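pinging the channel bc i need a second pair of eyes. not urgent but kinda urgent?? the chain im working w is below, pasted from the shared doc
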Amino acid sequence: KASSVAWDALGAVGQFSIFLLFFMASTLTLSIFHARARSHKNDGESYLSFFIRDMVGEPKKRKKKLRRKKVGRGTLDQDLLENEQVDNKIRTV
């Protein structure tokens, strides 16, 4: 069969590399899950119940974006210039 021919064609080093890649990916997935579970699970909740709650999960609420108030053109620049002139008069070194 084609799959066994391809697997044998990899050789010992290629097969070991595939196993190593699979092992690294699975441990990375588990460590990410564990880190998320530590910070997000409720008190007294098991990891299995958190995993189920996380997979079923409710849709997350989006935070509202804060919008800046529009300032009339030129007023901000004028205020900054006026404050700078006042500061220059007050400073004495």
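so Helices lie at 2-40, 47-56, 75-90. and DSSP finds three helices and no strands in the chain. — does that match what u expected or am i reading it wrong
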